[in-house]
Amino acid sequence: MNKIRALWNAGKPAIIGWINIPSILAAEALAGCGYDGLLVDLQHGAAEMANVAPLLLAIEHGGAEPLARVAANNPADIMRLLDFGAYGIIAPMINTAADAQTFADALHYPPRGLRSFGPRRPQMRFGPDYLAAASDSIVSLAMIETRDGLDNLEAILAVQGYDGIFIGPSDLALALGRSPRPDNTDPILLAAIDNIIARCKAAGKHVGIYCSSPAYAHRMVAAGCDIVSITPDLVMLTNAARESVAATRAGLLR
Ligand code: 3PY
Ligand code: MG
Questions:
Q1: Ligand 1: does its nearest atom lie under 6 Å from the Cβ of 171?
Q2: Confidence class of residue 253 from pLDDT cuts 50, 70 and 90?
Q3: Which CATH architecture does the domain made up of 3-252 adopt?
Q4: Which residues participate in catalysis according to the annotation?
Q5: Residue 78 scores a pLDDT above 80
Q6: Which atom of ligand 1 is nearest to the CA of 143?
Q7: For residue 81, what is the enclosing H or E element?
């Protein structure tokens, strides 16, 4: 059972980490830090399709559910990531019901969808029963983060075959004429986020959001999200480095 789906079935939220630095060593180490899932970001992170398979393997080996955000809502990339052992897909910039249907179709084998058969790594985890287990083994979130996505939300939510919505607060802020700051508390953005969360709940879909800190993640879970990302790897690394340098310098000046 997918760890994130198991949490959802138990009515609990999932906490995921965000990988921009495509290091196998770091991915395995982070995967052992208690995250429910770890996501390789192929849209804004440095990983490429060519180096994603070892990262997914390292994450699974480390004990977290391996997830990926595709660079775009491209069925060929989504199907390859599933074959490489991603058990969760986030697709950016879902703007229309047709985009959502393209996403849903890429996730499932016929007759439910259009996924092509060649599950190289999932077959090792699930054996010959993978075909029956495939749809449930994957969690899938469509990103709402544009003006079109907001305007077409009702039709996007009516599409079946994907689990829910993941809110991209930076792009959403830009779409609303606000600043794309991390953990943004701009009232216009927060009202839009609350509205998306409420409409996801009404449609029976899961909903999550990208957060840069535990405090913002707490706030979003309290607002109704059931999957939140927390501080991305590059931010953690640079925060820790800054603190270390500053503490060393402060000690030298004493
Ligand atoms: C956004 O905030 O727009 C995102 O896509 C998060 O990475
Ligand atoms: Mg975005």
A1: yes
A2: confident
A3: Alpha-Beta Barrel (3.20)
A4: 44
A5: yes
A6: 5
A7: helix 75-83
Which ligand 1 atom sits closest to the C-alpha of 41?
7
How remote is the CA of residue 170 from the centroid of ligand 2, in Å?
Answer: 6
Say yes or no: CB of residue 145 within 6 Å of ligand 1. yes
Q: From the CA of 208, which ligand is nearest? A: 1
Residue closest via CA to ligand 1's atom 4 equals 168
Tell me how far apart the alpha carbons of residues 243 and 156 are, in angstroms, rounded to a whole number. 43
The reply to whether the predicted model has a pTM over 0.85 is yes
Distance 105 CA to ligand 2 centre (A): 22
Per DSSP bridges, beta strands 88-91 and 65-69 are: parallel
Query: Does residue 171 contact residue 93 with C-beta atoms inside 8 Å?
Result: yes
pLDDT tens profile 198-208? 999 999 999 99
Rounded mean pLDDT, 37-53: 97
Altogether, the residues listed in the chain come to a count of 254
Check pLDDT > 90 for residue 16. Answer: yes
Is 54 buried (19+), middle (13-18) or exposed (0-12) by CB count in 10 A?
A: middle
- Every domain of the chain and the residues it spans: 3-252
With a 6 Å cutoff on the Cβ, whether 35 touches ligand 1 is: no
User: What atom of ligand 1 comes closest to residue 92's alpha carbon?
Assistant: 5
For residues 7 and 13, is the Cβ–Cβ distance under 8 A? yes
Which residues have a Cβ under 8 Å from the Cβ of 201 and sit 6 or more positions away?
A: 207, 224
Q: What's the CA gap between 115 and 239, in Å, rounded?
A: 41
SS3 labels along 17-40: EEECCCCHHHHHHHHCCCCCEEEE
